[in-house]
Write a structure and sequence with these properties.
By secondary structure, the chain is mainly α. The protein has 15 helices and 6 strands. Strand 1 and strand 2 form a beta hairpin.
Length: 382
């Protein structure tokens, strides 16, 4: 590993020296730098691309009049709300982007000037990222969807630099992600849902019943306050106007217009919620952290033990209650457009791609249609 070493010159000033080789087993070379930061950046480049390329990059950089920021410097500027570069997002979303950057790509690429990062560098980062362990699933690698989300943020960071003529091309463009095997949604029958509901500890049954009866996202349901529930309409309704976001201390407004919606509920669901609290009080409350019900804690302490007790022969996750709700609505003949609005999907294509295969008699109808068409073809005289 190449290192930056401090030394004092004859005048007593502290400088930094990096010793390296242009090629393996070649003659030793050295470069001197004014600061530890510059020296460390060059040392990292030697380890990353080799001494010859690292020196070429260094000479190119020294010959430029203007300073090109490192990826860390540019990402910080990109995410700084005062820079005016990234607008129209909630503070919680911005904080989530910072967390992704700090954990996903800045540790590997952050010290490199943005105009020196190549398509191959991004490819090497993707290959490394795909080998990282999943934070949610034990003994599994990170999901391809998660890597795609990381790449999307990195692409936008570079694209902002490109539009400002700081780089000639976006090195993230056309970088491919290995397609994983997406987890199949688990759908529960009403009987299976009842078994799961009864296996949940009594304190948390109302939340499980509500999720199954509304199809709301976990982040939406656990952010509801009693003022969001209208008991005076027929049927009663719930107004979805906020949701928890990563790192946010308070619920945030949904990022899409479709996410802000009104959902009809039943008297049974209303009765399951019990007596209302104060208007600004959370409907579903935990014992810690200001009353918020935390997903991870709920999953480990409530959900997984309930699955063992229920012994369903399948392993749904909490989000599968949303899938289950949609499957019940489809089975009962509700149009996909109604379900799209209820679930808060911004595009009908999302609803179709996730639940279209559940449409009752869809395969029978399509088979009958093609049979009729092919029958007409057979009747045509050659």
């Amino acid at each position: 590993m190449t290192k930056a070493t401090p030394f004092r010159n004859p005048s007593g000033e502290v400088k930094w020296r990096v010793q390296f080789r242009l090629v393996k087993n070649g003659t030793g070379k050295q470069e001197t730098f004014e600061s530890e930061k510059e020296a460390t950046r060059f040392a990292n480049a030697v380890d990353r691309v080799g001494g010859k390329v690292a020196r070429e990059q260094l000479e190119s950089r020294r010959n430029r009049a203007s300073h090109t920021p490192t990826l860390t410097e540019w990402t910080n500027r990109y995410l700084d709300p005062e820079s005016g570069i990234l607008t129209g997002i909630q503070p919680g979303t911005r904080d989530g982007y910072r967390r992704i950057a700090d954990n996903a790509f800045l540790p590997r690429l952050g010290d490199i000037p943005i105009d020196e990062i190549t398509h191959d560098d991004i490819g090497a980062w993707v290959a490394w990222q795909e080998q990282q362990p999943s934070k949610r699933q034990k003994n599994q690698r990170i999901a391809s969807k998660t890597v795609k989300n990381y790449r999307a943020l990195l692409y936008n960071v570079f694209e902002a630099a490109k539009t400002r003529n700081m780089i000639a091309a976006n090195p993230v463009a056309h970088t491919r992600i290995t397609e994983g095997n997406p987890r199949e949604a688990v759908f529960l029958t009403p009987a299976e849902f009842k078994g799961l509901y009864e296996a949940v500890t009594p304190r948390h049954r109302a939340l499980v019943y509500f999720l199954g009866g509304t199809g709301m996202r976990w982040s939406e349901a656990t952010a509801l306050t009693w003022s969001d529930i209208n008991r005076d309409t027929m049927p009663p309704t719930v107004r979805v106007n906020k949701a928890w976001k990563k790192l946010a201390k308070e619920p945030q407004t949904p990022k899409s217009k479709a996410g802000r919606r009104t959902i009809a509920i039943t008297p049974r669901i209303l009765a399951e919620l019990g007596e209302p609290g104060a208007p600004d009080e959370l409907v579903f409350r935990g014992k810690f952290s200001g009353g918020r019900v935390w997903y991870g804690m709920f999953r480990e302490r409530v959900w997984l033990p309930a699955l063992v007790r229920a012994d369903l022969g399948k392993s749904p996750n909490i989000h599968d209650l949303r899938h289950t709700h949609a499957s019940w609505m489809i089975a009962d003949g509700n149009p996909l457009t109604f379900i799209q609005e209820r679930l808060g999907h911004e595009n009908i294509t999302t609803t179709v791609s996730v639940y279209g295969h559940l449409l009752p008699d869809a395969h029978v109808r399509m088979a009958a249609s093609i049979d009729a068409i092919m029958g007409k073809i057979d009747e045509i005289t050659a």
